[in-house]
Amino acid sequence: MRLLVPLYENPADRPEAWRRLFNAAPRLYGVVLNPASGVGTAPDAAFADVAVRLRSAGVRLLGYADTAYGARRHAEVLEELDRYQAWYGTDGAFLDQVAGSPAELPEYARLAALARRRGVRTIVFNHGTHPEYGYVEHADLLVTFEGDWTSYLTARSPDWTRRVPPGRLCHLVYGVPAGQADRVAAVAEERGAGVCCAVPGGLPHPWDALPEQLETA
């Protein structure tokens, strides 16, 4: 089970947490960079520094961009991804609030194709729930669950997930009790996901901590 880590904290404020990421490089699918609920208006020196160190450790860097369930213009999203590449050397994109219905599929297919033409090598669609199967064709990784621990235990996966290699699906779970992160990994594996992240915090800002496996390493 590999870890996708969306650590939405500035490295200048949480240097020890980011140091743990450097040491955990072999366990990571990737790290999401999110300086200002997006790339922001200017480079952040602290993020630039950790980006260099993570790349040197062989970690995949994903720039966070909100797609607003298809309401945001492609040009804005692509411009943001361009800035991530220029400022932080990202090699992938973590697209948040991605729609999952058949109606929006053609537009997301187009967005993914345009991003790849601009040098984005890894595309993550964060649906937060299971989308239509067709989205699998256009992203390298689909986040098919994002929610709290209680909801995760009773969630169900559609039949199509059995046809997808485990490395293509990811579960992001917050509010996880102490000592239960490995259980999240086990449940994710049972449901066909080969990537996950389980953190202790809850809403409104769950992604301010590392997964427990790294906090206790």
UniProtKB/TrEMBL annotation:
<dbReference type="Pfam" id="PF12138">
    <property type="entry name" value="Spherulin4"/>
</dbReference>
<dbReference type="InterPro" id="IPR021986">
    <property type="entry name" value="Spherulin4"/>
</dbReference>
<protein>
    <recommendedName>
        <fullName>Spherulation-specific family 4</fullName>
    </recommendedName>
</protein>
